[in-house]
Amino acid sequence: MDRFTRFIPTFASGAPSLLVPSTDHGQTHSDNEGLLGLQRTLRDAQDPRRPVLGSWMMLPGAALARMTAQMGYDFVLVDCEHGNIDDGAMHAAVGAVAAEGASPVVRIPGPDNVYVKRALDSGAHGILCPSMSTAEEARKLVSFAKFPAPKKAVPTTEGGTETPSRHEGQRLSGTRGVGSPIAPAVFRQTLREYIRTANQNTLIAVQIETLEGLENCEDIARVDGIDMLFIGPNDLASAMGYPALEHESIPEVQAAVQRVLDAAKNAGKYAGMFCTASDQVRRRFEQGFDLMNLGGDIVALMEWNAVQLEALNDIRHGRSRS
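The line above is the sequence of HpcH/HpaI aldolase/citrate lyase domain-containing protein; the predicted structure tokens follow.
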């Protein structure tokens, strides 16, 4: 074992089972054929079918991230596009979410190599990239997110042999740099194990929310390494010339939503949808979507405060209920 990888930490016993392959299948922590994190959750949610649910985090704070994950969500999305979350807060939130057994996903500001690198090096189980418009952009994103795939077996410093993975996802090859000891710790792996398995375990989701992205959604879905098409309905409706918040009542927008869903499914990919309430989640799940969020931190704060304050309007304004 070399001087660097021997000091890469693993979490103490009792850490969430989500982060390691199930022993029910005879797999071990270093078995590269077993999926980890959100990739595993999505795979397991196919049979029996169930929705993969998450919450949107737009406010910074490890404590908030931890408490949100403790609610029982499958994932918590750390929003670095529209949220008030900088690089340091992202790192803190990702570790806090993973430590509670949920999958941290980072919505990056855009398809830039630096954003992809920082998100995945923090230990995120996946990234969500907004405003994906072309297949070429999607291929570049995949390249940024994947390590170069080894071509042949080589001897290791431990006296063993490093062989290329047989897993389809691990055979993808990109340009991601090796260097972060933080991501392996989040996945409960050594650096060697993480490098060996990260290409198959990190999820790449792209948002279809522009007219160009809608027109190219079938081509984007067919790009190797793109795991999910995720619909941003507000921006999609706005791009189509409709009021963003009225998207559910506009037939043309709903037809576009169905087109993106069909594109994902026809390509053998997952489909995700932004939702703000349980009835929306139920409808989208029945429609065929795999992953949905159920509101988020700011929505929860606003809704709870609005309801409770309204219930006290009579005494707040000096009026009697009678």
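Note on the example: The chain has a mean pLDDT of 87. Strands lie at 52-57, 75-79, 103-107, 126-129, 154-155, 161-162, 203-208, 228-231, 270-273, 291-296.
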